[in-house]
Amino acid sequence: MELVVFVLAAAMILVGAIGVIVRSNPVHAALSLILTLFGVAVMFVAQNAHFLAAVQVIVYAGAIVVLFLFVIMLLGVDRSEDLSSEPFKVQRPLAAIVGLGVIGLVVAAVVSSRDAISVRGTGLNVADTLGDGDTNIKQLARSVFGDYVVAFEVTSVLLVVAVVGTVLLTRRVKGSGKDT
Amino acid sequence: MSSLAAATPTTTWYLILAAVLFGIGAVGVLVRRNPLVMFMCIELMLNAVNLSFVALAEKMGDIGGQTTVFFVMVVAAAEVVVGLGIIVSIMRRRPGVTADDVSALRG
Q1: What percent of chain A has pLDDT over 70?
Q2: What is the least distance, in Å, from the CA of B1 to any CA of chain A?
Q3: Separation CA B7–CA B14 (nearest Å)
Q4: Is B42 part of a structural domain of the chain?
Q5: What residues of A are in contact with residue B70 (Cβ under 8 Å)?
Q6: A156: buried, middle or exposed (CB in 10 Å: 19+, 13-18, 0-12)?
Q7: Residue B2 above 60 pLDDT?
Q8: How far, in Å, CA of A20 to CA of B32, rounded?
Q9: For the residues A143-159, what does the mean pLDDT come to?
Q10: How far apart are CA B44 and CA A16, in angstroms?
Q11: Are A20 and B41 in contact, with CB atoms under 8 Å apart?
Q12: CATH code of the domain covering residue B45
């Protein structure tokens, strides 16, 4: 059963990821990205990260991809681009070599060190053992608002800076008809 | 067949899948010229890293991995907001621009 879930979610992730890089229409690429993000959410559930799976669907598949689609429509780039012409001839072979090299190196590192990964922490209290549905959320909340509360506060500053920066960046100066 | 059905995916499988996803995202950033699609490929790479964090959090029994993924998601959201803002302001001035055309860092 776990194997079936893994294979199906892995197929979703890989098909979506390849769709993002080969579809010539940016809208199709964004929809492929949704497929990948849902596959990752399924993987999160399979790995007992229930809260993160919910956040993945709501924030990534919901907010971020909608933002992408919104910008695509706003800029009017929702038509196919020509992917057959390549001004810089060696770019694609080089990119393939870099991609295969990254995959090969990381896979080699993972396979060679697969026995070195051992249990070190206090253990994830999954719902099955305690019979409580929201242990994952409780544990995560204790971590975020306990051990990492300073990082959490800094994150809120980051969000404010990002919003103010974006407003300043895309604002038009009234009267001059010129972007800032 | 029975051994195949009994096989459960180990952490190594998840890490290999994350590596493949990261590689696809990296190739996408290198190959595509539309800045929006390049941005989506960066999201692919971030998700690959998140997947490996969650797999290792499960394996090592440490909730810190999931906490890290939480912060990565917040930073990714902020990054998308700023990046799309930059792309909108560039595209408004020069419609149909690709990543190659804005190699010089000036208007």
Answers
A1: 87
A2: 13
A3: 14
A4: yes
A5: 52, 55, 140, 144
A6: exposed
A7: no
A8: 10
A9: 93
A10: 10
A11: yes
A12: 1.10.287.3510
Asked if B74 lies within 8 A of A159 by C-beta distance, the reply is yes
Please state, in angstroms and rounded to a whole number, the distance separating the CA atoms of residues B104 and B50: 33
- Burial string for A84-114 (b: 16+ CB within 10 Å, else e) reads eeeeeeeeeeebeeebeebbeebbeebeeee
What would the two tokens of residue B71 be? Answer: 């912060």
Cα distance between residue A85 and residue A71, in whole Å: 25
The type of residue at B58 is: E
How far is the CA of B94 from the CAs of A63, A113, A179, in angstroms?
Answer: 27, 49, 12
Which chain B residues are Cβ-neighbours of A71 within 8 angstroms? Answer: 36, 84, 87-88
Residue B23 lies in a domain: yes
Residue B23 amino acid letter: G
Contact (CB<8Å) A98/B19: no
As given in the structure block, the two tokens for residue A87 are 């001004």
Q: Is a pLDDT exceeding 60 seen at residue A179? A: no
Q: Average pLDDT for residues A63-78, to the nearest whole number?
A: 88
Instruction: Tell me the residue range of the domain where B33 lies.
Output: 10-96
Q: Which residues of A are less than 8 Å from B3 in CB distance?
A: none
CB-CB: which of B19, B34, B84 is closest to A67?
A: B84
How far does A54 lie from chain B, in Å, by closest CA? 11
Q: Does B49 touch chain A (CB under 8 A)?
A: no
Nearest to A32 by CA among B23, B88, B52, B37: B37
The three-state secondary structure class of A42 is helix
Residue the block writes with tokens 């909608």: A66
> Measured between CB atoms, does B20 come within 8 Å of chain A?
yes
pTM: 0.88
| Domain assignment of residue B2, yes or no | no
Q: What's the domain count of chain B? A: 1
d(CA A78, CA A115): 48
- Residue B14 belongs to a domain: yes
